[in-house]
Q: What sequence folds into this?
């Protein structure tokens, strides 16, 4: 708390001094950069100090409960872009699961765990190639959206159904310990790892739900500096990467614990969790665009480099 107080005091005093030289717009941008730098330093410190997992969990739960009903509409183009990329033959071959074909009935079953499922982006992408999808999410509102979509598509709970819960808890709820929530053929986390306070724990806990030879796949952002610039990338690009976000996008940033992952980082997470056999890493497309993130008069779209990593449970 003391450190936070002095950070704020420093920003206020420096802003007052520089206000003599800067115009209003430039000063606002300067203050925003300072805020992000402070947050980035805290994220780095969190890697070396105790992280309050409960605080992160509740912040995520509250945010996604609030925005679940508008999520699909707000990010429709982004969701469609990701689904299209995941459904490409190249991506499905990379994942390497024993997908079902269009034969009826299927010659075998393949059960998907869609963890941090949200409204079901990953499930929608893989539904044509699996026989059963089970989602789990912290947010009860997201789970409701997921299950409403399944019902609207005429799918029974035995085909597509989500549970509210947290597999990363030290004591998972009894309803998450039922037999059907184990022995998955494949588990996928779509854009959820950067919200986990402990991704290594997440990989291990999710891996425990896989059958031997099962596949864990993670879709997330490549490592960046908080503005979207890859680490090690030059910053001589003007101010287009540093414009202020709108209120909802800023709130979403508060649920983020990691500014993406490098290939080396994610591989170590997989290996340490016992799901690193036959590890693979690929960049998805040429970047995913998130639309409508800017404040009025500011940036409207935000582009992120997205990867998929996959590994097999030993």
A:
């Amino acid at each position: 708390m003391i450190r936070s107080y002095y950070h704020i005091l420093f920003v206020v005093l420096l802003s007052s001094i520089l206000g003599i030289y800067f115009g209003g717009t430039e000063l606002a941008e300067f203050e925003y950069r300072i805020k992000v730098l402070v947050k980035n330093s805290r994220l780095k410190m969190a890697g070396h100090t105790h992280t309050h997992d409960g605080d992160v969990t509740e912040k995520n739960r509250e945010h996604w409960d609030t925005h679940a009903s508008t999520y699909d509409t707000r990010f429709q183009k982004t969701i469609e872009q990701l689904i299209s990329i995941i459904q490409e033959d190249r991506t499905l071959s990379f994942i390497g699961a024993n997908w079902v074909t269009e034969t009826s009935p299927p010659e075998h079953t393949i059960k998907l765990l869609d963890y941090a499922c949200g409204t079901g982006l990953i499930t929608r992408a893989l539904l044509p190639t699996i026989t059963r999808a089970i989602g789990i999410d912290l947010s009860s509102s997201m789970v409701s959206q997921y299950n409403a979509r399944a019902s609207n598509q005429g799918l029974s709970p035995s085909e597509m159904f989500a549970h509210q819960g947290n597999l990363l808890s030290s004591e998972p709820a009894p309803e998450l310990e039922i037999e059907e929530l184990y022995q998955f053929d494949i588990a996928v986390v779509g854009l959820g790892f950067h919200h986990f306070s402990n991704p290594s724990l997440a990989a291990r806990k999710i891996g425990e739900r896989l059958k031997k030879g099962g596949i864990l796949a993670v879709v997330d952002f490549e490592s960046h500096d908080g503005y979207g610039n890859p680490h090690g990338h030059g910053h001589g690009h003007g101010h287009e990467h540093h414009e202020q976000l709108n209120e909802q996008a800023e709130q979403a940033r508060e649920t983020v614990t990691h500014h993406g992952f490098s290939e080396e980082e994610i591989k170590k997470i997989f290996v340490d969790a016992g799901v690193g056999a036959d590890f693979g890493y690929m960049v998805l497309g040429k970047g995913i665009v998130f639309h409508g993130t800017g404040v009025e008069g500011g940036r409207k779209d935000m582009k992120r480099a997205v990867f998929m990593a996959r590994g097999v449970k030993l």
